[in-house]
Amino acid sequence: MASFVIEGGHKLHGEIHPQGAKNEVLQILCATLLTSEEVTVTNIPDILDVNNLIQLLRDMGVKVSKTGIDSYTFKADTVDLNYLESDEFLKKCSSLRGSVMLVGPLVARFGKALISKPGGDKIGRRRLDTHFIGIQKLGACFNYDEERSVFSICAEHLEGTYMLLDEASVTGTANIVMASVLAKGKTTIYNAACEPYLQQLCRMLNRMGAKISGIASNLLTIEGVESLHGCTHRVLPDMIEVGSFIGMAAMTGSELTIKNVSHENLGIIPESFRRLGIRVEQRGDDLFIPEQEHYQIESFIDGSIMTIADAPWPGLTPDLLSVVLVVATQAKGSVLIHQKMFESRLFFVDKLIDMGAQIILCDPHRAVVIGHDRNFQLRAGNMISPDIRAGIALLIAAMSADGISRIHNIEQIDRGYQNIDQRLNALGARITRI
Ligand SMILES: CC(=O)N[C@H]1[C@@H](OP(=O)(O)OP(=O)(O)OC[C@H]2O[C@@H](n3ccc(=O)[nH]c3=O)[C@H](O)[C@@H]2O)O[C@H](CO)[C@@H](O)[C@@H]1O
Ligand SMILES: C=C(OP(=O)(O)O)C(=O)O
């Protein structure tokens, strides 16, 4: 278990480039299975979850070549379907959440998919009903082997239909879209998730010959086609990284330029930080965060306390609430953080409370933060990172704290942030990996 040792209290200065988006690339990599032709993907981040999925594709027989620092080609002309039955495959699937999206493409192209309970952050119940009910509606059979925790899906052919999803699941929508592009006839998906990750996936599939309309809305219509062909796809900058850097700049009182953020795809993220009083200036496609000693949380128009809550896109992504929460600990004013989607994502606040933050955890979903307005600097701490986003929030807290902190289990941070220690040290942070 690797750790970070962080000397707090150093301001950052300069420019940082966000990596490619983790949650998009996981979808895109799975989609390469939908064609026997070559697919080129660029701006792939060098992070654990992505590297594990690339290795899994290789193990399945996909020809993978690294063609540049962040670009790869994939050619799934032969896929070893027997490998899907192996304990090795099933064990590897359970190391990351993104592996669940192998199901849609596999069942669409080869009529068969197996998957073990996928991994990912332990942040509460993460059910897969939406995925499997949707794929069953297309005509696939489904079985869950409780003893082995293995889901298996088979289909001689898939047929388009209308479906109203029980929730706008991000990976669930991606799975159903990837299954339906090769189904016979028309599929309509209502209450579809429409995060930029999904918009990107649908645009890529259309470049491969799919016929998807309604992109960026919650009503997708897909006319099935016989086969798909190769294409080139560039992954968007990671909006969660962009948000994490905004929070980091504010909390450490630093001036930072975040380069080439793809502003049109950030949705409500910049505005959510502005509501905490943080100045976020758009300069072309960059974001400039000026050095700010104080930032004051807005109240609602009626004077009541600000609430920041997650919601399916175009609402605020739940993946940024941990960062919003940590940044609020040094704001002027109070805010209610309401994590509606996940049940166990706020428990990390105990560690912030140990560091001196003023937080009341009301229940597993809600925490009230009373900002210090920098009248009190957080104390250094010794903590374990429970999940990716709590991990980055703790790193931000440690970078602003007085003294030397330690964060253990940083593999959780590495799952989602590329070389984060080196990139931040280049801006003036003092982080050592041990
Ligand atoms: C690999 C990947 O892409 N992971 C992301 C994906 O996970 P993932 O696709 O697994 O998450 P889902 O969108 O399925 O659901 C996330 C959670 O929100 C709940 N839920 C979802 C939709 C809804 O309308 N109402 C509701 O309550 C679900 O029950 C679940 O507890 O989307 C999540 C929600 O943005 C992000 O946190 C994850 O980073
Ligand atoms: C929850 C996350 O990831 P995953 O779905 O891969 O666990 C995340 O990226 O914040």
From TrEMBL:
The keyword Transferase applies. The keyword Methyltransferase does not apply. It comes from Phocaeicola vulgatus CL09T03C04. GO terms for biological process: cell division; cell wall organization; peptidoglycan biosynthetic process; regulation of cell shape; UDP-N-acetylgalactosamine biosynthetic process. GO terms for molecular function: UDP-N-acetylglucosamine 1-carboxyvinyltransferase activity. This is UDP-N-acetylglucosamine 1-carboxyvinyltransferase. Phosphoenolpyruvate binds at residues 22-23. UDP-N-acetyl-alpha-D-glucosamine binds at residues 97, 319, 341. Residues 7-423 form the Enolpyruvate transferase domain. The active site is at 121 (proton donor). It catalyses: phosphoenolpyruvate + UDP-N-acetyl-alpha-D-glucosamine = UDP-N-acetyl-3-O-(1-carboxyvinyl)-alpha-D-glucosamine + phosphate. InterPro entries: Enolpyruvate_Tfrase_dom, Enolpyruvate_Tfrase_sf, MurA_subfamily, RNA3'P_cycl/enolpyr_Trfase_a/b, UDP_GlcNAc_COvinyl_MurA. Transmembrane segments: none annotated. Its main location: cytoplasm. Keywords: Cell cycle, Cell division, Cell shape, Cell wall biogenesis/degradation, Cytoplasm, Peptidoglycan synthesis, Transferase. Belongs to the EPSP synthase family. MurA subfamily. Cell wall formation. Adds enolpyruvyl to UDP-N-acetylglucosamine. Gene3D superfamilies: Enolpyruvate transferase domain. GO terms for cellular component: cytoplasm. Its EC number is 2.5.1.7. It is found in: Cytoplasm. Pathway: Cell wall biogenesis; peptidoglycan biosynthesis. The gene is murA.
